[in-house]
Amino acid sequence: MKRVFVVLGIVLILVGCAGTKTIKLPENITRDNFPNANAVVVFDSSVVDVQPDGKFLSREHAIIKILTMKGKAEYADQTFSYYTMYDTVRVIRARVIKEDGRIIDVPRENIKDVKIPAMSKFFLPNVRMKKITFPDVEIGDAIEYIVEDEMRAPPMENNYDAMVMFQGTDPILHQVYVLKIPMDVKWKVYNDEDGMVKYTNKNEKGKSVHIWEIKDVPGIIREPLMPAITDVAKKILISTVPSWKVWSKWYWGLCKDKFAVNDTMIAVMDSLLKGTKTKMDTIRAIYHYVADEVRYVGTTMSGKKGGYEPFPATKTFRQKYGVCRDKAALMVAMLRHLGIEAYTVLTNPAMKVEKEIPVDQFNHAIVAIKEGDWYIFSDPTVQFCKDLLAPYEQNRGVLVCTPEGEDLAYTEILPPDSNTSNVAAIFNLNGDGGFEGEINIVGKGMNDMGLRMLAKMLSPDRIKQIFEGSFQSMGSGVAIDTIIFSDPQDYTKPMNIKIKLNADEFALVQGKKMRFTSPFSGGSSVGISVGRGGGGDPFALEKRNYPLYLYSKSKSIAVERIKIPKGYRVVQIPEDYTIDSDFMTVKSTWKRKVRSIEHKTEFIMKKIEIMPEEYPSARKAMKEMQEKSKREVILEKI
Amino acid sequence: MVLFLLLSINPSQFPNASGYIHKDSTVIIQHQDGKIEKIRYLKIEILNDRGKDKLGDISERYDASSQKFVIDFAKTTLPDGSVFNPEKDAISDVSAPEVGFATIYTDMMMKAVSFPALRPGAIIEYRYRIEPKKESKHPLFGRVLFRGTEPMGEKIFTIVVPRNRPVHYSFENGEIPVSVETTETNLIYTFKKKDIPMFLEEMDMPSISKLAPAILFSQFESMDDMGEWLYEKFSPAFSSDKVIKKKVEELRGNTDEETMLNIARFVQKDVRNVSLYLWDAGYKPHKADVVLKNMYGDPRDKAVLLYSLLKAAGFEPEMILVSAPKGKYFAIVGLSSVLQSGGKVYSPAEFTDIVIKVNLKGKDYYFPVMENRSRCGYLPGRYQGEKGFVVSEKGAYVTLPVLPSEESVSRVNMTGEVDKDGNLKGEMELFLTGEFGRYARWALRDRKKREREIYMKSAISSLSRGSTVEYEFNGLENILNDVKGTVKFTAPDYCKKEGKEVTFVIPHPPFWFVDFGNPAQTFRRRYPVDIGAPGKVLYSFRVKLPENAKIEFLPDDVNVENEVGSIKKSIKRDGNDVVYNVELIVKKKIIQPEEYRSLRKLFLKYRSKNTRTVIFGDGG
Fold this sequence. Notes:
The structure holds 2 protein chains of 2 kinds.
Chain A (H helix, E strand, L loop, with lengths): L10 H6 L22 E12 L5 E11 L2 H7 L1 E7 L3 E11 L5 E3 L5 E5 L11 E7 L8 E10 L9 E5 L6 E10 L4 E5 L7 E7 L2 E11 L11 H4 L2 E5 L4 H12 L7 H10 L6 H15 L1 E2 L16 H7 L1 E2 L1 H14 L4 E6 L16 E8 L2 E5 L18 E4 L8 E2 L9 E10 L5 E9 L2 H12 L2 H11 L8 E7 L10 E8 L4 E3 L2 E4 L7 H7 L17 E2 L4 E10 L4 E5 L4 E4 L3 E9 L3 E10 L3 E2 L4 H14 L4 E5 L1
Helix pairs in contact in A: 6-8, 7-8
Chain B lengths: L1 H6 L11 E12 L5 E11 L2 H7 L1 E6 L4 E11 L5 E2 L6 E5 L13 E6 L8 E10 L8 E5 L6 E11 L5 E5 L5 E5 L3 E11 L11 H4 L2 E5 L4 H12 L7 H10 L4 H15 L1 E2 L14 H7 L1 E2 L1 H14 L5 E5 L30 E8 L2 E6 L18 E5 L4 E4 L9 E10 L5 E9 L1 H11 L4 H12 L7 E7 L8 E9 L4 E3 L2 E5 L23 E2 L4 E10 L5 E4 L4 E4 L3 E10 L2 E10 L3 E2 L4 H12 L5 E5 L3
Helix pairs in contact in B: 5-8, 6-8, 7-8
């Protein structure tokens, strides 16, 4: 929620030039010199002046030179959003600096203040934006702006905290962040092993002035399946909040009056709990109710701390919609009414929450249920999840918000068995090289969630199209006859899907021989686990600059039985193999049966994250698996 | 309660639906004073959890400066009869989505209602009015679809106009029952259809706005009437002042063609796009010199600038309004309000975009003003075959051509070598024109150097892990040329080895932009397939085998020709080389469902691995 402020470097020179009609930027900022940039941030500065009550005024001054068409599309409009109950944004200066140094001021009508647009399921009329549309921007020009943000009502009074990014996806030539503050602050720089961030401080008019500065920072180029940019970029975390416990107690304070229940809710709880025997049964019943019956929609943020404090549980229950904090509060309210100690938890599933400095890095709320010395965590925002916590929410920072306050902790990393897919397939080959077959997939963890989501959120027709498309790699002309899902509403059993299919062309008929690679060798079931990432093949690069993040450990087992056609005998089957590395284990075994062959592949991914230095050996293992999985089965006509 | 049960439907009747629209009624009233009012009523039943998400929040745009949004009622009724009204904070006034990226052009608002207490079986009822604050000076015109993405029990569209301002109407994709009533002061046109099935989403289907039954209506009396109105909107914005002339001189080339293409390239590529549909920001464009100064524009503004520059340079451009919805457009249509459109009835609102056409020395050049990835002068597939209207003193309807397959060619020539261990290496030369050039620019142009490297390495690694690649592309930035490229690669352990036999599946280039994709993945087809544009894929691969290799297996040639196109494949031995040639031609842009089998036949043969597999031994 906090905007990242960039730093002022050459501003002193430019302020001096404020009255001039031309500005000349360094000439070496060219596409040739910056081939990995759509734009270059020439300088970027923020000066933040904080008051003892936590209110502050920040002024951001930036000059960005455009190098490509995409850079023009990305930077020629600048947006600054603000929440009317907390802050106000003012545009002090906006202009274009042409390549020849001419300055074009942005006309007033090009600076608009409007409500932010509807976005997906968010309708937030009290969030606004200041939008600057820079005119006459061409490649080689620069844009410049000075924008002030006045924080009139800080969410946590008498405190200040910020996460300041010192690196983005485009290079930064010079960035400065200046913090003037009357309170003591803790701070730490992250991802700066090369020591590029420089720090100085001084005192000025009763305030400490902290200055962080950096020069010549390269942009981050995304790699497939890398962690969030905020996890790997240079950044500083700054906070006056003494500890995580203070945050925990603060948020408890916002939630504690929201947990009341009413008679209607009690009646519903009574009916939900019919047949439940144990505490865990109760928790599951309440969790599935909130997750599946309350849809995700964000409307006006209300209350003194709108955007932070949830709606009262009775309201969310009545309207059957809410955002994460609303759903979490509802689940907590219901559990507490049933005598189960539960609390709201602040977390962030998308990025790492750094522990050392207590800065608000949260964007999500879940639930903690007290169990012995610790907690069971549950995320009622995630629909169609058999498990209380979504399988990808592993190793995520969690702050349980209690009256006494808690320290930041992390969710556990689960073993591979927690995320499995079991595939059992039978293929009846015919003499023309085609097959009829049946595939049965049983999922656990992410695979279970994925299958449930498919069954609930897509039409049967669409599901069939998707599977038909994805099975084309198995053989030419694959057609699906039927798909049958188990009941996605039945959370007592793992989700399974049964697919009947056929293909005209699978095996290669070579005179008297027939040859093929088995459909799941090394194979498609692995693809379910590995092929999650967008942005390309995560193992394509010879080396990586950033970790490869897999969200969870996993396991898949595929057993396929291939019935050979009459009149054929098995001449060759591939050799068994095992690959065992720090990263993964693969076992492939083949057996000849009376009129069929059986192939079993077990794949275990042992790590949740592969660091750059570990990557080459992981890649090697994947390569070895790919080579070995190419071996063919050869049949011969008798 | 009994009535509720009677109204409720059985979800199993509609297994693919998320909801059932019991009734969707829109009334447009043109008052005597010229003010236009809209009244909408919706009754929707939620059938399942999908329906809660898809249909639970209903939004409608309105212009706060000239319109007032009034909600008459909004409620959710549950199967047990209990009624829930949205609370105050469930009704949101936010900016319409397009304001996010086109703030300079529009401040359109959106009223969103989030319906409470939804569950399968719940019924939403919603009635609202958009009341005018001032009269509209424009004739009434529009287009309404009568089929959408959920099944409908009844859809009604009513137009009420003063008796002296009748409405002309016609139908697309089938007739819709209509009644016309005359009162003392008004004419009332009522279009009503019952039991309307839903569209199901299929890959590569045309926009459903092209497939759905639709009413076109307009108060324009004739084509000239509409033409004059349009010309009055655009012509004041044309300019030939000194700023325009100066720009023309900057862009002048050595020949007329060069000058024309330089001007087009400047407007298409250098003037940044504000991505709105044609009338989203009103009817009157900015003046050409203002657009030139701003260096950004929506379709109207960019068209006016391009037209003015070409005219000032001595050309005779034509401004053609076209209907070309972006993407495959599968929004929740059927709930949307009046879309604006035209046809035999003269209505400008059908058109979403503008193309400028110039005929130079007998050849037609097309410049879609918002298009910056195609070679200058090429008409991209999504405009081909579309109806258009020429904006001039005397307007006229035209149909844009469907270009022959020779205009979109993907030609890849590859040479390579396979060794006895099954390692493959090769070099490809790519030459991509028309649609394929556009695809290549989509895939590559906007990537930074390292991003492009990652992309190319990912693509090549589909051949085998451990592959390497070097490449060079020309023409990605310069839309005056087609796209060419050279790619060198190695793919270790590409082939399968069984003892002394090597199975070598000749690879197709692993880049999506050299191909049609796979539009024939499913066994059956309900709706037409939109291929993009007719085109040709020509691929040849000469690969050297190891010394003394003995070929154990070569597949038969493939030769299929049908009404949709043709596929020819051959693999021949030539000394120590194997030469593979494939020619895939698709002759049509739109393939009808009854032609789908023919399309699938071509693509199955094209994609088949078995028809490009070579097995060789070591000859020992």
